[in-house]
Specification:
The protein is an alpha/beta fold and 218 residues long. It is 24% helix and 27% strand.
Amino acid sequence: MSKLPVDYDSDPERWANRDPSTQVFGDVHEGVAKRISLEMATPTLDIGGGQGRLAAVLPEGWPTILVDSSPAQLVTASPPKLRADATNLPFRDGVAGSVAMLWMLYHLDDPVHAIGEAKRVLRPGGLLFASTSSRRNDPELTDGYPATGFDAEEAESIVSSVFDHVTVERWDAPMTYLPDAPAVLRYCRSHFLPARAADRVVPPVWLTKRGCLVIARR
């Protein structure tokens, strides 16, 4: 088991091959933004938020701070933004109404430490959102992804080791549509799959997405 490579700065071309338009269903950012706004869970700390997708779908003017360790990701994000480590958040205790750790905990050597930091900066009643994929994601293209420190198979138990009140939303359905061979190759590149994985499918093709969103309350 190992962390997923953090290559946003060393290999920006891989990330550039990602095409968000191919994900027709299941964007967790929109659902998380809705839950945050309904509960008035303010301010929001978007940890590992990259280019600021969560802030873009939260209500206009919502108090949000984007935190990421990658200069390449932060350069195009709108302020307020901050370069920092998820395992050492530069915020005092109990300042946040919500913390998002979407699609990022699998990059860390110690996701439990980062989840503990999220709990520390949340006020009582505050919400943590953490999403991840299953090792059985994209079965059309692969027989399985390598295990990381934060996969859907163990995500609930990992978060529950820090938080007492945890719920989980899971998905297992066709959600991503790749219309042609170049789209399949781009997807393989962006998801650390070898180019030969594209030979397993004949486009157009729907990919089955498997994963979960863990929601914890402080």
